[in-house]
Specification:
Layout lengths: L8 E4 L13 E8 L4 E7 L5 E8 L3 E3 L15
Antiparallel strand pairs: 1-2, 1-5, 2-3, 3-4
C-alpha cells in the first residue's frame, strides 16, 4: 500500500466527479497526515492554476512509474 511523502507526485486511481478529476490525473502531495496514510493532494492545470486540493487516502493514488506516459486533457470547470 502507498505511504505518502511530502512533495511527491502521485497518480489518481479513480474518478472524483465532484472535483472533475479522472483516473490517471497527476497531483502533488502538499501535506501528509496520519503517519503517511492520508494526504492533501493538489491538482493543477499546465499553467499552475489549482483545480482541486483534496484529502486522499492510500487507496486513491499510486506512485508514478518510470514507464508512465504523460497526457494532457482540458479541464471544463475552469
Amino acid at each position: 500500500m502507498h505511504k505518502f511523502k511530502d512533495l511527491e507526485t502521485v497518480i489518481l486511481t479513480r474518478n472524483i466527479k465532484k472535483h472533475g478529476l479522472r483516473t490517471g490525473d497527476m497531483g502533488a502531495v502538499v501535506n501528509v497526515y496520519d503517519n503517511g496514510k492520508a494526504a492533501e493532494v493538489e491538482f493543477v492545470t499546465s499553467t499552475g492554476r489549482t483545480v482541486a486540493l483534496i484529502t486522499l487516502t492510500q487507496s486513491d493514488v499510486r506512485d508514478i512509474k518510470q514507464n508512465d506516459v504523460l497526457h494532457v486533457r482540458g479541464f471544463a470547470s475552469i
